[in-house]
Amino acid sequence: MTEMMLHPGQVYRTDDLRTTNPARYARALVAQGKLRQLRRGLYVAPKMTRFGEAPPAGEELLSKLLDSSDFVLTGPDRWNALGLGTTAMFAEQLVYNRKRSGSFELAGQRFRLRRVAFPKRPSPEWFVVDLFENAASVGGSHDMLTAALVSSLREGRFDRKALKRAAQKYGTRPTRDAVFRAIALAG
């Protein structure tokens, strides 16, 4: 087999190992310590730092796991940044995609995948709707979030039309009602 150039920290699928027998080649690379198996068919080329092995980037892991770049990372990091009063933390990174659902641990990182609709390029207004959809999981309520959203809208922090469109397209009825009520109250 010809030696393949592996890049430290990069994630590989068995299919990426372009040989006549990629599964056998992957096993040989694992035995040599050039790859580490994350799960069946998914490997990482170890990247050592002075603190030990560095984990691969979460987005690269997900891209290889899903065999697609069609996903959105969401959750407390994005929601807390909206300035609507939430300060939640999750042990798992929330990932919306079009292929899989379930919880996965890869390279010490935990992901909760959900098959749900999401835009190609999520806007802050979409993340507001997403926060309303997940209010219960962050210990919030629609009433608390509505009050915070009214203040934010009055300050001009979100585009009202984009918010309304996002709620219409991606929100459940309770979310739509709460967002529309906030827009009306903001004047």
Could you characterize the architecture of this molecule?
The chain has 187 residues and is of the alpha+beta class. It is 39% helix and 19% strand. It has seven helices and nine strands. It has a four-stranded mixed β-sheet with strand order 6-7-9-8. The protein starts with 10 loop residues before the first strand and ends with a helix.
Strand order of the largest sheet: 6-7-9-8
Helix vs. strand class: alpha+beta
Q: Roughly what is the average pLDDT, rounded to an integer?
A: 92
- pLDDT < 50 runs, ≥5 residues: none
Shape: elongated
Question: Helical stretch count?
Answer: 7
Rg of Cα set: 21 Å
Please render the helix and strand layout as text:
Layout: E1 11-13, H1 22-31, E2 36-39, E3 42-44, E4 48-49, E5 52-53, H2 58-66, E6 71-74, H3 76-80, E7 93-97, E8 102-106, E9 109-115, H4 124-133, H5 142-154, H6 160-170, H7 173-186
Parallel strand pairs: 7-9
Antiparallel strand pairs: 1-3, 2-3, 4-5, 6-7, 8-9
